[in-house]
Amino acid sequence: MHNTELAQRELESLLDFLTAAGLDCFLEEEAVDSFALSEVATARRAMPGPGNSVQPPVQREPAAPAPAVLQRPHDGPLKDFSKSFQAQPEPAASSPMGEAVVPDKAAIDMAREAARAAGSLEELKASLGAFSACNLKLTAKSLVFADGRANARVMLIGGAPGRDEDAAGVPFIGRSGQLLNKMLAAIGLNRGDVYLANVVPWRPPGDRTPTPQETEICLPFIARQIELVTPDFLVLLGAASAKSLLGTQEAIRNLRGRWGVYEAGGRQLPCLTTYDPDFLLRSPLDKRLTWLDFLALRERLRG
């Protein structure tokens, strides 16, 4: 990767994080002390000299008294709530990190090393819990690692957790999870028969799409997770999952229903792409297409 492209991606990631944090404009490159400038201007006006005569003070009307602050009965003094809006991750997902970092090659290398060192799913989960180079961890409530059977034949992978998943620390629950459970039951599977995970294990602020940098940092962990689960089939739920794991930019409507191959630990895994349950809730007419995809999966399982 060229240095120019890397620098641009780092800048895009930083801007995405600042926007999610509430920054909406940039003022100056350097701080300006307006009070000091005002004092200098006042002193210059008061100095006699050519073209700079002393001006008599301007008579101003007395300022109106400030309105009283209305308080509800029994309210105490006003408090400073600025610290109340800082993200407070759950203990299971917290780490000693305190500042946002700019995702770069060093962060990606750190993720690869941490993922490679994990010898089991338990170790991988602990490694993710201690990982400090993904800024999504600062705003997420919990780590959403996985659910289901560790040695399942089918592993389903989504893009990123949403609000319900973030609150519970479990992937695919709430309305989307209920729909997915029904889809699995329709081909003779239940939630305990499969393994569920996401490419990105932390909820992005406002359920936005993870940036390419955030996804790239998390990729080594989901790749190692696939190796440790050793499934027979992968089902990629949605565009974010399919594009990141298959390394393609094709539209989800072109990828959906197609079988591909994903290499994991020297194995060639059959990989099927279909729609994400969240998308199906917004576009129920596409459920028929996903039903065809799950029927194709059932045929592969029986073969």
From TrEMBL:
Task: Drop me one GO molecular function for this one.
Answer: 4 iron, 4 sulfur cluster binding
- Give the enzyme's main class according to its UniProt record, as a single word: hydrolase
The biased composition feature labelled Basic and acidic residues covers 72-82
Reaction(s) the record says it catalyses: Hydrolyzes single-stranded DNA or mismatched double-stranded DNA and polynucleotides, releasing free uracil
Q: Which CDD domains match?
A: UDG-F4_TTUDGA_SPO1dp_like (cd10030)
SUPFAM superfamilies in UniProt: Uracil-DNA glycosylase-like
Q: What's any GO biological process attached to this entry? A: DNA repair
Might you give the EC number(s) for this enzyme? 3.2.2.27
Q: Which UniProt keywords apply?
A: 4Fe-4S, DNA damage, DNA repair, Hydrolase, Iron, Iron-sulfur, Metal-binding
Entry keyword annotation includes Hydrolase: yes
Regions that span the bilayer: none
Q: Where is the Uracil-DNA glycosylase-like domain?
A: 145-295
Its family?
A: Belongs to the uracil-DNA glycosylase (UDG) superfamily. Type 4 (UDGa) family.
PANTHER family assigned to the protein according to its UniProt record, in alphabetical order: TYPE-4 URACIL-DNA GLYCOSYLASE (PTHR33693:SF1), TYPE-5 URACIL-DNA GLYCOSYLASE (PTHR33693)
What is the protein's given name?
A: Type-4 uracil-DNA glycosylase
Organism for this UniProt entry: Roseibium suaedae
Q: Source taxonomy lineage?
A: Bacteria, Pseudomonadati, Pseudomonadota, Alphaproteobacteria, Hyphomicrobiales
